[in-house]
Amino acid sequence: MLSETSAGLKKVEWWIRLYSYITSAAILYGIAAAHVPAIIGIPWSSCEFCNCKLVCVLVFHLYEVPLVAFNTFFAWYGFKRFSAVSIHNYNSLLTFAIVSNLSFFTFETLLLFESVKSDAPAWESIGLSSVALILVTGAGLGLYVKQKIVAYLYQTNND
Q1: Which of 36, 81, 120, 154 could form a disulfide with 115 if both were Cys (CB 3.0 to 4.6 A apart)?
Q2: How many whole angstroms separate alpha carbon 114 and alpha carbon 23?
Q3: Which of 10, 12, 135 shows the shortest CA–CA distance to 71?
Q4: 100-129: b (≥16 Cβ within 10 Å) or e
Q5: What is the pLDDT of residues 32-54, one digit of tens each?
Q6: pTM value?
Q7: Backbone φ, ψ for residue 144 (5° rounding)
């Protein structure tokens, strides 16, 4: 029985590492997608009609930076802190990661609607769509990983 439990934990660890790698890649992609256009001189049109572009950019960062910081912490936790002892803590953090990704997805979708409505350049709609797709896919994968954890915990509690 101990070997079955150990094998079950190894499978859960594999899914958690995969989720951490995917989360890390999504973070890097999102940061690049948000900042590269402005760096190369083609800023996003979201703040185009604002009187103070700096305030507009700061408001975006006020919403996005805490979510990115949490996802960064969560990926690190999956790489460095996850163990059989911390599985309940990880499971709780995973719940919040799913919710924060869905919240971030909603924000990106609203930006996409505004982008389409204001006839923004196609590259903006493509960028917003890709980030939104990554976020909703990450939430779905997070639900799958959560079910793997729940199944493992159920198995260990009934052994």
Answers
A1: 120
A2: 26
A3: 135
A4: bbbebbebbbebbeebeeeebeeebbebbe
A5: 999 999 899 998 888 888 888 88
A6: 0.89
A7: -65, -45
Higher pLDDT, 110 or 53: 110
Q: Which phi and psi angles does 119 have, rounded to 5°? A: 55, 45
Nearest-10 Cα torsion for 134, 27, 68, 51 = -80
Q: Torsions phi, psi of 51, nearest 5? A: -65, -40
Phi, psi (5° rounding) for residue 86?
A: -95, 10
Instruction: Answer yes or no: are the C-beta atoms of 111 and 128 closer than 8 Å.
Output: yes
Helix ranges restricted to H, the chain? 2-39, 53-76, 87-117, 122-158
Contacts of 155 (CB under 8 A, 6+ apart): 4, 5, 8
Distances from the Cα of 16 to the Cαs of 77, 88, 91, in angstroms?
10, 13, 10
Which residues have a Cβ under 8 Å from the Cβ of 120 and sit 6 or more positions away? 45, 114
Give, as one character, the DSSP assignment of residue 82. -
Number of residues written out for the chain = 159
Decide if 128 contacts 112 (C-beta within 8 A): yes
